[in-house]
Each structure stands twice: as C-alpha cells, then as structure tokens.
Amino acid sequence: MERTFIMVKPDGVQRGLIGEIVSRFEKKGLKLVGAKLMNVSRELAEAHYAEHKEKPFFGELVDFITSGPVFAMVWEGNQAIAISRSMMGKTNPLDAAPGTIRGDYALSVGMNIIHGSDSPESAQREIGLWFGEDAIISYEKTVSAWI
Ligand code: RTP
Ligand code: MG
C-alpha cells in the first residue's frame, strides 16, 4: 500500500476544480487519508520544489504556488504514486493526453492545475513536509475489497 502527496495548485482552486479532481481520485478507488485548504509560505514552496532551485523557472514557480490557496491531499492505495502521475498527465499540457487532468484542463506548463509526488522518496518527503504523520488518518473502507 502506497501513499502519495497530491495538491490542487492555485489555478485549479481558482477555477473551481477541487471537486472534479477529488472526484476523479475517489472514483479511481484511491482512499483520501489527509486534506487541507491552505495558503503556502515562500519557505514551504521553496522547500517543496527544492529539486528545481537552480532552474530558470524556479522564481516563477514559487511565485505561482504562493499566489493563492492550494488544496493539499494525501491519497492511499496500491501503486498510488504511479497511478496518480498517470491520471495527472505529462507536465506540459501540450503533451498531456486527453482524459488526463492536465490534458483536459490545462493550457500551459506554468499553470498545470495539479502536483503529485514522482517517487516513493518524494512522497515520503512531501507528506512529512506538508502534513506530518499525525495529520494522516487511518481508517478502513469496506469497498476496498472490491478494488
Ligand atoms: P509537479 O512537481 O508540479 O507535480 O510537476 P511535474 O513533476 O510534472 O514537473 P517538474 O519537472 O517537477 O516541474 C515542476 C513544475 O515546474 C513547472 N515547470 N515549468 N517553464 C518550464 O519549462 C517549466 N518546467 C517545469 C511546472 O509547473 C511543473 O509542474
Ligand atoms: Mg515534480
């Protein structure tokens, strides 16, 4: 069983896509184990995207993520990390297949609606950074036997 950190970015929140995105993850069969609507400090944004610190777009990326509230979530399930990445689609909406979240809702790489952890190491780091283990809920979903 895996956990992954998923975030609806400020553009997704402003465009009213929280419900649509949560719905897609629920219908897929993943289990929501943590969620919060929050403003992001520059410090948190810089720590979250630390791997991109030297990239030319880093400043813009941090400006964007701190520009309005985000909806941060933790989803749990078999292969949750890879499954979520495939539901999101490629980073650049130009390459994201129709049917994926970015393929259906985004036009530009700078505003691509959603973030998802890209590996087990990233997921662990990001869940710790945004939630901490105490904020994650453990519960049984009886429907899990059918997924
Ligand atoms: P994310 O971390 O946000 O889930 O996106 P990702 O894994 O698909 O892509 P990543 O390579 O980690 O890039 C992080 C975010 O930086 C912005 N970006 N801009 N201007 C550019 O060439 C460029 N490249 C990346 C995107 O918003 C991307 O989601
Ligand atoms: Mg990434």
Summarize the structure in words.
The chain has 147 residues and is α+β, with helices and mostly antiparallel strands. It is 38% helix and 18% strand. It has 7 helices and 4 strands; from the N terminus they run E-H-H-E-H-H-E-H-H-E-H. It has helices at 10-14, 18-28, 42-48, 58-65, 80-88, 101-105, 120-130; strands at residues 2-8, 31-38, 70-77, 114-116. The longest helix has 11 residues, at 18-28. The mean pLDDT is 96. Bound molecules: ribavirin triphosphate and magnesium ion. Ribavirin triphosphate (RTP) binds at residues 52, 57, 61, 91, 109-110, 112, 115-116, 118.
Throw out a few tags for this protein.
single chain, 147 residues, alpha+beta, four-stranded antiparallel sheet, 4 strands, 18% strand, globular, binds ribavirin triphosphate, binds magnesium ion, magnesium, phosphoprotein, nucleotide-binding, nucleotide metabolism, Nucleoside_diP_kinase
Please specify the SSE layout and strand pairing.
Elements: E1 2-8, H1 10-14, H2 18-28, E2 31-38, H3 42-48, H4 58-65, E3 70-77, H5 80-88, H6 101-105, E4 114-116, H7 120-130
Count of helix runs: 7
Task: Count the beta strands.
Answer: 4
Roughly what is the average pLDDT, rounded to an integer?
Answer: 96
Helix content: 25-40%
Relative strand content: 15-25%
Unreliable stretches (pLDDT < 50, length at least 5) are none
Which strand order does the major sheet show?
Answer: 2-3-1-4
What small molecules does the structure contain?
ribavirin triphosphate, magnesium ion
C-alpha end-to-end distance = 13 Å
Note the main sheet: 4 strands, antiparallel
Order of helices and strands: EHHEHHEHHEH
What overall form do the CA principal axes indicate? globular
